[in-house]
Amino acid sequence: MVEVIRTDKFRLYPNAKQKSLIHNHFGQTRYVYNQILGKIVNKEYGVTTNKKGEEIPVIPSQTTIVNEITHLKLIHSWLYQTGNDFLQASIANLYRACKSFLSSKGGFPKFKSRKDYEQSINFYAGSRAKFDENYVFLPFPKETQFNKEDFKIKYKKHKTNHDLPKNITDYTISKDNLNQYWISFTYKTTISHTVKTNKACGIDLGLKDLLITSDGQKFENNRPLIRSEKGLKRLQKSLSRKKKGSKNKEKARLKLAKKHKKVKNQRNHRNHIISRQLVDLYDIIAMESLQIKNMLKNSKLSKAISDVAWGDIQSKIEYKIAEKQGCFIKIDKFYPSTKTCSCCGNVKDKMSLSERTYVCHECGFVCDRDINAAINILRAGIKELLRNTQELSKIMSTEALEDLFKTSWVDDVEKMGLLHCSKLI
């Protein structure tokens, strides 16, 4: 059994009064967040310097920030209408964002606006969360204009392979740009071990074909954005012609948002299907690392690269194979997988995108360029694993290792390492 963290997202169905309640929670948590962020920006907690010698505001401790909630409640009594757990969660989010900025993992936090179409509130006190199969019960505050029944909001569960446990760690209530309300439950659970296949593969990412494996399998790129481009263009043109602030403009915006949501769902569904097929088939998956941000600077390919969503499918494969207790390997971004011959190891100086077939001038080897790159990626991944023989022996059996080193692209040094792994099992 493996312990994993799961999140289930369900649709909320609040009535008109409950929508007003949820928006009150959105507004009050946003107000507390912006007030404390404003104090940080105005350097009320002090000034320090970063590594470059530039002056930056001091980020106070989380305890200091939480104490600010009490002072704000003394000034604004209407903050008592929201449960303290929601207010503290917004402060925790701010503190985490500030720490990410200091560690250079993200930008400086931005102020929130009530005009944003997407809003959310978090509840991190999982032990005090109350819900059943059909309803979630929000904490009832001391002072409120709403009845206790209004804090009981209905949600609809979709079909899942597991039941929602009682010991959740947190949940999030959100509103998207389609004015739909959602609730996401996060919890820890255990899953059973899946059957080991004792197979490994390398994956090359592409635009014509989404994924190409070292076994020669190709997954088609269905291009959801490009296929819907004509309809999106028509809806965008209709939106731009509507009068600002009118009801017709809001109707046109919702139609456009719905179309974008459909494209997003199509891409997400495709990536889930493909990643599940690959994880069920292989125990070891090696994939190339790409500088996607730099690739998007190419104006001719930026739309196609954004549409293919390489980062999304990579993250889905990574977490699913971790649940299977397999191995996911990212190859160095500077490794010349496309230019290298998978038969003799010769590296070409140049290879243009128009060359779809790899022809080696040293040994005469001919192969599809993407399959050749996938084989090289698998080879580099196995070399990376050989540095930790115990890790490899946990993933593949002796017979599978013996079959692997019989392949033509594994050289003598790798064979010795694989044989050593098989003796350790």
Task: Tell me the span between the first and last alpha carbons.
Answer: 21 Å
Which parts are unreliable, with pLDDT below 50 for 5 consecutive residues or more? Answer: 408-425
Strand order, largest beta sheet: 4-8-9-1-7-6-5
DSSP helix count?
A: 13
**Percent of residues in beta strands:** 15-25%
Chart the SSEs and their pairings.
Layout: E1 2-12, H1 16-41, E2 47-49, E3 55-57, H2 62-75, H3 84-102, E4 119-123, E5 130-131, E6 135-137, E7 152-156, E8 168-175, E9 181-191, E10 200-205, E11 209-213, E12 218-220, H4 224-227, H5 229-241, H6 247-281, E13 284-288, H7 292-295, H8 302-308, H9 310-323, E14 327-331, E15 357-359, E16 366-368, H10 369-386, H11 389-395, H12 398-404, H13 412-424
Parallel strand pairs: 10-13, 13-14
Antiparallel strand pairs: 1-7, 1-9, 2-3, 4-8, 5-6, 6-7, 8-9, 10-11, 11-12, 15-16
Structure write-up:
The chain is 43% helix and 19% strand. The chain is built from 13 helices and 16 strands. It has a 7-stranded antiparallel sheet. The protein has a 5-stranded mixed sheet with strand order 12-11-10-13-14. The chain has a two-stranded antiparallel ribbon with strand order 2-3. The radius of gyration is 27 Å and the shape is globular. Mean pLDDT is 85; it is low at 408-425.
